[in-house]
Amino acid sequence: MTEQSTPRPMVQAPSHPGAHEGYMPGFGNDFETEALPGALPQGMNSPQKVNYGLYGEQLSGTAFTDVRPERTWCYRIRPSVKHSHRYEKIDLPYWQSAPNVDPDVTSLGQYRWSPVPHSETPLTWLTGMRTMTTAGDVNTQVGMASHIYLVTASMVDDYFYSADSELLIVPQEGRLRFCTELGIIDIEPQEIAIIPRGLLYRVEVLDGPARGFVCENYGAKFALPGRGPIGANCMANPRDFKAPVAAYEDREVPSTVTVKWCGQFHRTEIGQSPLDVVAWHGNYAPLKYDLKTYCPVGAILFDHPDPSIFTVLTAPSGQEGVANIDFVLFRERWMVAEDTFRPPWYHKNIMSELMGNIYGQYDAKPQGFIPGGMSLHNMMLPHGPDREAFEKASNANLGPDKLDNTMSFMFETRFPQHLTAFAASEAPLQDDYIDCWTSLEKKFDGTPGKK
Fold first, then answer.
1. Are 265 and 336 contained in the same domain?
2. Is the same domain home to 324 and 266?
3. Segment 212-262, tens digit of pLDDT
4. Omega before residue 79 within 30° of 0, cis
């Protein structure tokens, strides 16, 4: 793998009504797109012969018998079995999977990290992945892992897919291009991308160095949360999610395909680019989303609602109302609640909360939570504002106030998140983070009526 500054072109479908800059709108939509006219069969999925000598192949993201199966029909130059050969195990030591319980690492605690610095060694999407926490079990398809990616070099004739998980990608610095079997997705800070399980792709650097966060979801796919009394509008609207139009390569060149399977990495060598899907239709596809289109809701009279109102995406578990993962966004918004402590209150939570800062300042931690940094508050560990945030919020003039220059997020899971050895010993851990609560004072006064 060597550095590549110029993205490799793919033959892409032309724009059509409803498409926007090479994308099609809608979360969970059933899309259809073709890069060559007439490549997509009409009225059926598997004709005896497909136009252009293409092969029909289905990619299934759920069981056939699921209530709403998620699947995509692909019409490709070669069937996927031609992109698979004998495999050999390879080692990517910094990319870890659950269960990953290191007896020498203490995961119980309130932790915070400064941004993981870039390396002088060129790093690709695969070699630059750094696992921070793991939860659940990749083998039983429950739980998650959280990663930092550091990418300075493009993947050249090198491709990857995860059989274990879908990936939620949150850029913090730089721009990346995901050249996938189903089309091209470009992402930058304040956007996210979702790459489904089993979808093959390579990652190119458009503007580096690139750094960001990844939530690796072992369980049920991410979905939009149920809105209940909030109703049909606000939060993340389905139309703002974009799927790529079809794009393909027809290049015969020695290539490698790396597969993540049950936490292990395997590599095979092939003689062509595997990105050869000329047309496709279905509802199992990669997506991008602009976080600036997220419309937050909140209290307009008093009290501070639960942060669940800021959920962008949720991956359900087997227990109704308890998520395998929630992706929660804290962005700019107006604060207007009367007689209310407006920052997040002190609490202990059954969920484990890993936060990342995309840019700006988080209102509950005005110092130390740096853009590119992370924090972890594991299940049933107390946390909340530091003294500075508490004093400011307790004594503030409660007129309407615009919370500005801020965008942070949370990967929240029902499972305890275990630190990796990298997170505990190599990543820039802020050893003094726990001390941010030391100066909180006893303010108790038993005088009746005293505030």
1. no
2. no
3. 999 999 999 999 999 888 999 999 999 999 999 999 999 999 999 999 999
4. no
Q: Where are the beta strands (DSSP E) in 114-190?
A: 129-137, 142-151, 158-162, 166-180, 183-187
Of 343, 407, 403, 402, which Cα lies nearest the Cα of 371? 407
The whole-angstrom separation of Cα 95 and Cα 249 is 29
1 occurs within a structural domain = no
> How far apart (Å, rounded) are the C-alpha atoms in residues 309 and 77?
45
**Residue 345, pLDDT score:** 87
Alpha helix ranges (H) inside 293-433: 387-394, 421
Give tens-digit pLDDT for 182-217.
999 999 999 999 999 999 999 999 999 999 999 999
**Residue 347 structure tokens:** 């609490």
Regarding whether 335 and 239 lie in a shared domain, the answer is no
Catalytic residue positions?
304
292: number of Cβ within 10 Å? 12
pTM: 0.94
Domain that holds residue 424: 294-433
CATH code (residue 382):
2.60.120.10
Q: Does residue 323 sit in the same domain as residue 265?
A: no
